[in-house]
TrEMBL record:
Signal peptide: none
Cofactors required: Mn(2+); Mg(2+); thiamine diphosphate
Native organism: Bdellovibrio bacteriovorus (strain ATCC 15356 / DSM 50701 / NCIMB 9529 / HD100)
Gene Ontology molecular-function annotations: transferase activity
UniProt-recorded name of the protein: Transketolase-like pyrimidine-binding domain-containing protein
PANTHER family: PYRUVATE DEHYDROGENASE E1 COMPONENT (PTHR43825:SF3)
Family: Belongs to the transketolase family.
Annotated InterPro entries: PDH/Transketolase, THDP-binding, Transketo_C/PFOR_II, Transketolase-like_Pyr-bd, Transketolase_C, Transketolase_N
Family matches, as CDD domains: TPP_PYR_DXS_TK_like (cd07033)
Origin organism lineage: Bacteria, Pseudomonadati, Bdellovibrionota, Bdellovibrionia, Bdellovibrionales
């Protein structure tokens, strides 16, 4: 036995009341146990999702709807045991969630109990910058409610392996209960834990362990078996791996969920050497027929307007009248929607993703052997357009980013031009070693990694790649591009494909290319008729003529509009600016910067939605210094912090001071002594 250091828990203790909206299950000893009403969970998720949608954020329904009964039963049981043993629940259990986009269901459940400081009202700020209720559960934002952060599928589950090992070695033997979705079970990290947990348990190294799998055969883009491959053989193998598998065919039957969970916990406690899996069949999007039957099971929240809520909630509640609090909530949402419409703000831009898909389609039509290898996010990265047009040239390896990049490397070895795609955060973390080994095998790939930095505002810190440049820029033979508009994406992607093919035909090994891009709409182009070059930085604005004080604003990707806005604002103060867009991040265009910095008396601001350490600014300024260019620099970026959810990236740019006004303010520090403005 080894004693750990005592860490005071930040988790909220037992609820002090029964849920406001409750159902009852019957315990083995005949008691009626109150649990959160799963239909209320689904209704509350719908209401809070609508708030997020009106705010401009994506939101999710299908996953938490599928898990509602299991979560109600689990929490009802855990709180009941804690009350009877007169202990706090966390002194008896660990509860960890690793199911895709299901945390809003847990927020709703906790608000229903009025625990962890939550009320129904606090759900209304879900995913906004004002709230700790981030897109996925995050300890730094909601320590009262989250023990282990989640979001990247299959990453929380392996951490619970360590938790349960700690329970064994400390002799405390609290029960660890983890929920996971079938999509998350496709991840390599999860598969490692599937093998290790029963293996280590057999040698006495694990405390009591229960894993609840919500298996609805549906991932983000559709049905798992139809889109990639069936997970049934994987689930069938769990018994052979040493798990005590309990099958629960009706994972949306509240009483059956309760009975199964109680029995699983009993078995795990009685026999920790055999960790337990509840393999529960659930229905994604359950609650309304249309949602459950849709191709993605309502992965994304299916409603666009609060006017659709009465019918949607009515069906969830089986035709019962909506409680007053729901009607008041809907009325507030209707008013908000009317205000938005009255403000008449329209976004005329387009997604950078459009350029990715058009270049890929054009290249394939021109005869280049372009293949798409995806891992469930092609609709978000832009690659879906290519996949629709060339299904025979498209593969889906499941939710498995490492496998995706390595698969692409294999295809590259045979002379194909493979394009992989996912969110930047998963590409640079899970894809880093496969990218390295691809380069080392002379098997380059093209990667499309979207939702960079704060562009994935609503999903929260776990999804916000803020180290994306740092993580891949130093891998040998990997060129890194950060895209700012769809026209640039189209031009650079096409040229990379062309060059890839040319090099291969000449018997040379092309470099891998990693394209980073945002999520929101951007102008289609910034300067009409401009040309795009893989290695040349672009001067997008120059207002230095006739000015005595000027600054060069060097940026890349999603922050180009902020830099251009800053140049305008500076001009109105009589200060000139040159805005330089560096699409290629890890090869610096020294010549362009030499010319630009002469115009700005060496004043340079770098700005990026990335950590300052290892980011674009560091790469740029180091290269300039090595080339004996003289300049004075101020760098704007993130100072070693994680992000959080916000409705839009602008909220986070403002908070982390990488927006136009921060650029203007920083420019002022160059000229303070000379008393400019
Ligand atoms: C590592 C990682 N890759 C991709 C995603 C994006 N993503 C969010 S949910 C989801 C799929 C959801 O399907 P599943 O995990 O089966 O959950 P359920 O269908 O039960 O909601 C994906 C691909 C992610 N969150 N993490």
């Amino acid at each position: 036995m080894t004693e750990p250091i005592q860490i005071k828990t930040k988790l909220a203790g037992n609820p002090s009341q029964e849920p406001q909206f409750k159902s009852f299950v019957k315990s083995k000893d005949g008691r009626q146990i109150p649990v959160a009403d799963p239909n209320a969970t689904r209704a509350l998720v719908s209401l809070m999702d609508m708030n997020a949608v009106l705010g401009g954020a994506a939101s999710h329904y299908g996953g938490p709807a599928a898990l509602a009964e299991l979560m109600s039963a689990l929490h009802g049981h855990v709180f009941d045991v804690a009350a009877r043993e007169n202990k706090q629940w966390y002194d008896l259990f660990h509860i960890v969630n690793d199911a895709g986009h299901c945390e809003n269901g847990l927020y709703a459940l906790k608000a229903n109990y009025k625990m962890a400081g939550l009320t129904l009202d606090s759900l209304k700020k879900f995913r906004s910058i004002e709230s700790g209720l981030t897109g996925h559960g995050e300890v730094h934002c909601f320590p009262e409610g989250v023990f282990i952060s989640n979001g990247p599928l299959g990453s929380a589950f392996p951490q619970t392996q360590g938790v349960a090992m700690g329970e064994a070695i400390s002799g405390k033997n609290r029960v660890t209960v983890t929920t996971i979705s079938d999509g998350a079970c496709m991840e390599g990290e999860a598969k490692e834990a599937f093998a290790a947990i029963p293996g280590l348990a057999k040698t006495g190294k694990m405390g009591p362990y229960v894993l609840i799998i919500s298996d609805n055969n549906t991932k983000l883009s559709g049905r798992i078996d139809a889109e990639s491959f069936s997970m049934t053989p994987t689930f069938n193998s769990l018994k052979d791996l040493g798990w005590n598998v309990i099958n629960l065919a009706e994972g949306n039957d509240l009483q059956k969920c309760y009975d199964t969970i109680v029995s699983a916990i009993e078995q795990a406690k009685a026999n920790p050497i055999a960790p337990v899996i509840i393999h529960a069949k659930t229905v994604k999007g359950i609650g309304t027929k249309k949602t459950a039957e849709s191709a993605t099971g309502g992965h994304g929240f299916p409603l666009k307007s609060p006017s659709e809520l009465p019918a949607f909630l009515g069906e969830i509640l089986g035709g019962a009248a909506l409680p007053d609090v729901f009607n008041t909530w809907i009325a507030e949402l209707n008013k908000w929607e009317a205000d938005i419409k009255a403000s008449g703000v329209k976004d005329s831009g387009e997604k950078i993703q459009v350029g990715i898909s058009s270049a890929m389609v054009r290249a394939r039509k021109a005869g280049f052997p372009v293949l798409s290898v995806t891992s469930d996010l092609p609709g978000s990265t832009g690659v879906a357009g290519f996949r629709k047009e060339f299904p025979q040239d498209s593969f889906d390896v499941g939710i498995a980013e490492s496998n995706m990049v390595s698969t692409a490397a294999g295809l590259s070895k045979l002379g194909y031009i493979p394009v992989v795609d996912t969110f930047a955060q998963f590409g640079v973390t899970k894809g880093a070693l496969p990218l390295t080994m691809g380069a080392l095998s002379e098997a380059p790939v093209i990667a499309v990694f979207s939702h960079t930095g704060f562009q994935d505002a609503a999903d929260g810190a776990s999804h916000q790649a803020l180290s994306y440049v740092a993580m891949v820029s130093s891998i040998p033979h990997v060129d890194v591009y950060s895209l700012s508009c769809s026209e640039e994406a189209d031009a650079l992607m096409y040229t990379v494909i062309e060059n890839f093919a040319k090099a291969r035909k000449e018997g040379k090994v092309p470099n891998s290319a990693v394209f980073f891009l945002g999520r929101e709409n951007f102008p289609k182009t910034y300067v009409a008729g401009t040309s795009y070059d893989l290695r040349k930085a672009q001067v997008l604005a120059d207002t230095t003529a006739g000015k005595t004080k000027s600054v060069a604003i060097a940026t890349t990707g999603s922050l180009v509009p902020q830099a251009l806005q800053a140049a305008k604002d500076l001009e109105s103060k009589g200060v000139g600016a040159v805005v330089v867009n560096c699409a290629c991040v890890n090869h610096v265009d020294i010549a362009t910067f030499k010319t630009v910095l002469e115009k700005t008396q060496g004043h340079l601001i770098t700005v990026e939605d990335h950590q300052l350490l290892g980011g674009f600014g560091q790469i740029l300024t180091h290269a300039l210094m090595n080339a004996d260019v003289t300049f004075k620099v101020k760098s704007l970026g993130v100072h070693g912090e994680f992000g959080q959810s916000a409705y839009t990236a602008a909220d986070l740019y403002r908070k982390h001071k990488v927006d136009a006004s921060a650029i203007v303010e920083t420019t002022g520090t160059f000229f303070q002594k000379s008393g400019a403005w």
